[in-house]
Structures are given as structure tokens and as C-alpha cells.
Amino acid sequence: MTSTSHLNPADLEKFGRELDKIREEILADLGDRDARYIRDVIAAQRMLELGGRVVLLASWLPPAWIAGTAALAAAKILENMEIGHNVLHGQWDWMRDPKIHSTTWEWDLVCPAEMWKHSHNFVHHTWTNVLGKDRDLGYSALRVTPEQDWHPVYLAQPFYNALLALFFEYGIAIYDLELERVPSGEKSAVEVLAQLRMVARKVRRQIVKDYVAFPLLAGPAFLPVLLANLTANMTRNVWAHAIIFCGHFPDGAEVFTEDRLDGETRGEWYLRQLQGSCNIDGGRLFHLMSGNLGHQIEHHLFPDLPSNRYAEIAPQVRALCERYGLAYTSDSLLRQVASVWKRVLRLALP
Amino acid sequence: MTVTLPWILRSLAEAGRWLSTPLSPDDYLGLLHPLWPAGELRGRVERLHPETADAVTLVIRPGRGWRPHRPGQWARIGVDVHGRRHWRTYSLSSPPHRPDGCITITVKADPDGIVSRHLARHTVPGTIVRLAGPDGTFVIPEPPPPRLLFLTAGSGITPVMAMLGGLLSDEIPPDVVLIHSAPTPQDVIFGDRLRRLAARSPYMELHERHTRSVGRLGPADLADLCPDWTGRAVWACGPTGMLDDLAAEWPGPAQNLHVERFTETLRPADGATGGRVRFTTTGRETGADGTTPLLNVGEDAGVLMPSGCRMGVCHSCVAPLRSGLVRDLRTGLVHGEPGDLIQTCVSAAVGPVELEL
After folding, report:
1. CATH code at B40-135
2. CB distance from B315 to chain A under 8 Å?
3. Distances in Å between the alpha carbon of A319 and those of A314, A315, B110?
4. What is the rounded average pLDDT of the residues B53-62?
5. Chain-wide mean pLDDT for chain B?
6. Tens of pLDDT along B157-183?
7. Which listed residue, A139, A315, A334, B297, has the most CB atoms within 10 A of its CB?
8. Which alpha helices (DSSP H) does chain B contain, by range?
9. Which residues of chain A have pLDDT under 50?
10. Which residue of chain B is at minimal alpha-carbon distance from A299?
11. Which residues partner with B323 through β-bridges?
12. Sorting pLDDT into bands at 50, 70 and 90, what band is B272?
């Protein structure tokens, strides 16, 4: 654990104010350039998807299958990460465009946007890495920190984590139902049933689209198209799983106990977000394809700042951390993924 | 207006929805042509004509889904300025069925108006705007009354311009008097067209009043220019002061006076904080100071407020603003336009506020 004992409350308040200032400067500067960015990404994503699906109509030709599947997988990744996740955070609400707004957006994941916004934007981003409060710590299924009590079921976690990666969107949908809160009465069974119906509707629509309608349209290429769509969905799942797990589970990310929340100030909240998050180094294309979650620290400090600005403020945040003697965890994708898996394997055992 | 599609088109549309889920086919149509989506009514600015030193007519081609207006009606137009959508209401200055299928609005650049300045000074052909409407009751009945008086000032001429062409091309046109005020002859929007119309038609009488040299039009002037004014059906459009005076002086039957107001946005005085907060869906109303988040104000008033992090992070609490201004408690910034979705957990009332909750 990095020590923060060299910082007194006044230092932390100043630290918080400096971060507030970074946020305000970006907010004051938002304009046409940002609006053009998100509209361009959305248009490119839709063209890529359309193009991929058209090419797949000829997918009995192996090169067409490969090109179409790659395009569709890339489109699904963009739709989920750089567009969906960030729009649902309200990063683009300032544009007042009802077509690109957190309250109207729905994404191509089987987890309904409404449920995601509650579990992710509210629960996870408010209580980040607080054991017992942040359900994303291990997603109620994995042991990702030694502070979690061991249970024999965790012996199988390397296996079911790999499975989770493949079917990640279904994992999220089930997880967001918060089934573990039902027996205690915190959540009513009626509410869960209503949410289940929403999930079922989305599952039905995705299955019909990807595994019935588009394959049927391709006629003789029914099977190749079905396999292509399955591959694209799974590629998106595996990629999203990898990136998301690198956000809070590699070495360097800290876990907190609930007493940390008592009277937590703005500066302390920022500090917790910083200490609980890890960045991934990469180029522009990598950051685009990972929804800018390689800038996990910046994202957690400012969840509703437009994602195209994270790269811009990252050097400022890093310099600020240096000045305050605070750790800023960042490493290559390969090393972060390895670090996560080492943890999953190690913590499977008591 | 609902359009009944043949079943084959309806089935195609339904199939399209299954193929495009979770988006709609419209979202992909928009990639191919900006005016094809009908779900979100759009228009494309085709041309701009300067009318006076500070007024410009925008010729807009409406997209799929636009229904023709009646002369005198207005449309709402959504424009992106610095990336942010702003909606304003403008009278349509064109007759309903132009041969080129376009509509026009005529915008006078207000030195303090973000949107009017943007439309009049910084808009280029090809710009896509959002449209809503048309709507409004400032219209002439069918058949028109035999004698009409139009009383306009400044940009108040715009809805009347849309009416004149149609009226004067009727087989037996009604008797039309137009009294229009503007500071100088150069400031008269549509000046040349109005003068040409009046010169050509024996049924139209035009009185221009140039207020910088002869002062504002008073009730006595009206009787001089148009002795039978109280016997006419009147359509008036212009500044609030002029319309208030007219309404106060009008001696004729109330149903003969038709008034269109271009409402000005009322800004509370600087430093004004707090105010009455009304929740329009639930009908609850309460007082609020300038530092309490509207979320807490609503909760204290017993309104079921959506909420989340209560610190401006998660956007679970956003609610549509119907009227008024709010202050962002984090930045101190005062903002608010009708329809804005505001984060109630970090916004406080600045003057009276209405929220759709």
C-alpha cells in the first residue's frame, strides 16, 4: 500500500481543489470539437457495422468472412466501450442532443442501460473499491483481494472467470439483477422479476438479430454469418472483460474498508478514486478501442467528462500526483492482464 | 397526424427495427442522407438572404415528416452552438407551399442573443438544424374577413409576410392595410418586397413608419392612417410594449384582435437566488433557497425524485426543466433553457423554477 500519511487534511483539500480546477477548465472549453468527435465516432461505428454486415453476406468466401467478422467485432467494441459506456455516464449530456444522451441511450448489450446506470454509475463509481459497498469488487463471484473471505467455490474461479470473459454481457446482466440482495429483503422479488423481463426482451432481440435475421438474409451463407456474429459478440465480450478487469484488479489498486467513508471529504473521495484505479499504457487506437478506459484513473476522477479529453488531462493528473507524492499506477496491457490473472489464480486458494 | 402505411411497408419497418435493434432504422438512414430520418425532424439550410444590416432570411429544406404550416404559424428550430443544442421559436416567413418545397425564417441578430447571432452571422448553407412544429394560432380564418389591418413592428413583420402573398392572390382579395414600424427605411425587413406588393395590388395599402425620425406610433396616429381601424379584423405582432398598448386601447370586439408575442426570456436580477419551485407532474410547489440542491428541495416536498450519487457524478437524478434558471453548485454557473435536463443534486434555483417531475 502506498502511504498517504504525509498528507494532512489541508493538503488533501488543496489536492481536491486542483482536480476540481482541471475539471472546470475542461468543462469551460467543451464545444464544437468535442461534439464533432462523438458524432464522428458514432457515424464511423455505424458505417463499420453496416459494412461488416454487408461483406458477411458473401461470407462463404473465407476472406469475406474474416474481413466482415473483424469489422463487426470492431463495431461492437466501439458501440459498447467508447460510445455506450461513455454516453450512459452522461459524458455527452452537455450537448443537449436527445439522440446522444444518457437518459435515452440503449446499447447492444443484453444488460438494459437502465440497470447498468444504477449498478455502474451510481454504486460502483460512488463506492469504488470499498469492500462491502462496491459490488464490482469481484462482481459477487470472484475473489480479487485477500480481504475477501475464502470459500471453496473460489477454487474454480480461474475456470469460471475464463467462461465469464466469453459470455461477459450475460454475466453483467445477471450481476446487475443484484440477486444476493433479495433474500435479505433489500430488493423485492417483484422488482427483480420486472428487471428480468427487461433483460429477456433484450436477449430476445439480440438473438433474433444476430443469430436468426441476419443469417437468414444471407441465404446460403446462413451458417457462416451466424458464426461470424457469434464470434463478433464473443470478441467484444473477451475484450471488454480484459479491459474492465485491468481497471481495478491489478497490483497497485487498493481496497478500502467502509470506515474510510466516514465523513469522507471531496479531496479524500478523489484520493480513493486514484488509489483504487489503474491505467493501461497505449496509443490512440488502443484508447479508442478500449473506450478510453486505459485512462481509468482520469475516468474515475471525472466520470462525466467526455472521454476524448482524458488523454489530454492525463499528464496534468500524473504531474499532480507526483507533486503530492501519490502513486499513479499505469502499465502495459500485457502486464496488467497478467497481473489480474495472477491474482485470480493466487486468490483461488486460501 | 398519423399516416397509415400499407401493411407491406409496416412489416418492412418492423423488420427494420429487429435488424437495427437497439437503434432504429432511422439512425442508419441518417448516415446515408441527413434529411431521411423522420423520427427526429430535421432541415437543411439551403441559402441565406440578407434582408437588412442585421436580419437574414434562412431558406430551409425540411426533412421527412414535416407537415405544411398555415401562414402566420411558427416553428421551433434547434441549432447547435459551440456543440450545445439551443431551441428557439421563429415565425415562418414563407407561404406554405413554395415551389422548391422549402420554408423560410427571418432572423434579426440580437447583440445579446446566442442563437439569433449564430443563425444570422455564422450559419452556412448545408447546416443541419432540428425542427419542431409548425404550430400557433396567429392565422387568418378561411375565408378571410373582408377588411384586415396588420399592425407590425421590427421582426413582427415575419408572420405577416407569410400571409400577404396568399391573401393578395385570392380571386377577390380582401382589403388589406399594413402599418409597419421600423427605425429607418433601411431597417424595414422585406422593405422592397412590401413596397412592390403594395404598388402592384390595389387591395393593399402600406404605411411605413420610421420611428427614428417621427417617433413611435400612437393610437391617434392609427386613426389618422386607417380611419376605419376599429372596424377591421386586426393581426398585430411586435414588441411587448406596442402590443400591450394596443390591447389596452382596442375599442373593437375582442375576437377581432389577434396578437402574436415574441416572448422575451426573463432573466432574474443579478444575485437573485432561490425562489418558488414547482413540480409540474405532481403539482407540488415549495420555496427553495439558492444553496439547497433541487433534489433535496423536491424530496422535502414529498416528490419522488430520481437520485443517485448526490454529488454530480452519476446523472441518475436528471430531470427536465420546464422554466427558470438554476445554478450549478459546483461551478456557480447559472444556466437553464426550457427542456434542459438538469442534474438536480448539484443545481439550485435562481428565481422561480419549474421541473417536470
Report:
1. 2.40.30.10
2. yes
3. 9, 6, 45
4. 96
5. 89
6. 999 999 998 888 888 889 999 999 999
7. B297
8. 7-20, 25-32, 114-121, 157-168, 191-200, 211-214, 219-225, 240-249, 294-300
9. 1
10. B313
11. B354
12. low
Q: What is the CATH number of domain B147-261?
A: 3.40.50.80
Q: Does B309 touch chain A (CB under 8 A)?
A: yes
Q: pLDDT tens for residues A282-327?
A: 999 999 999 999 999 999 999 999 999 999 999 999 999 999 999 9
Comparing CA positions, the residue from A168, A173, A162, A9 lying closest to residue A77 is A168
Bridge partners (DSSP) of residue B85 are: B80
Whether the CB-CB separation of B134 and B73 falls below 8 Å is answered with yes
Take residue B130 and report the three cell numbers written for it. 432540428
Q: B275-355, which class in CATH?
A: alpha beta
Residue linked to cell 399592425: B151
Q: How far apart are CA A189 and CA A230, in angstroms?
A: 32
Amino acid, single-letter form, for residue A129: N
Could you tell me the pTM of the whole model?
A: 0.89
Verify whether the Cβ–Cβ distance A209 to B313 is below 8 Å: no
Average pLDDT of the residues in B307-326: 86
How far is it, in rounded angstroms, from Cα A276 to Cα A256? 8
Block residue for cell numbers 436477449: A203
Q: Cβ contact (<8 Å) for A107 and B22?
A: yes
Whole-number Å distance between alpha carbons of A104 and A118: 15
Reported as a single tens digit per residue, the pLDDT across A50-90 is 999 999 999 999 999 999 999 999 999 999 999 999 999 99
CA distance A161 to A247: 16
CB–CB of B179/B219 below 8 Å? no
Chain-chain contact of A126 with B22 (C-beta, under 8 angstroms): no
Report the C-alpha gap between A349 and A32 in whole angstroms.
53
Tell me, what's the ipTM? 0.91
Phi, psi values for residue A6, rounded to 5°: -75, -5
Residue found by looking up cell 389591418 in the block: B149
d(C-alpha A108, C-alpha A80), whole Å = 7
Q: How far is B148 from chain A (nearest CA, A)?
A: 42
CB A333, CB A246: distance < 8 Å: yes
A6 Cα to chain B: minimum distance (Å): 27
Q: Which amino acid, B91?
A: S
Q: Does B32 touch chain A (CB under 8 A)?
A: no
- Nearest Cβ partner of B18 from A20, A90, A209? A209
**Chain A CB contacts of B28 below 8 Å:** 46, 50
Is B172 within 8 Å of chain A by CB?
no
Q: Where are the alpha helices (DSSP H) in B70-190?
A: 114-121, 157-168
Query: Can you give the residue ranges of every domain in chain B?
Result: 1-32, 40-135, 147-261, 275-355
| Rounded CA separation B130/B110 (Å) | 21
Chain B CB within 8 Å of residue A211 CB = no
Strand partners for B103: B60
pLDDT at B308 over 80: no
The span from the CA of B55 to the CA of A253, in Å, is: 59
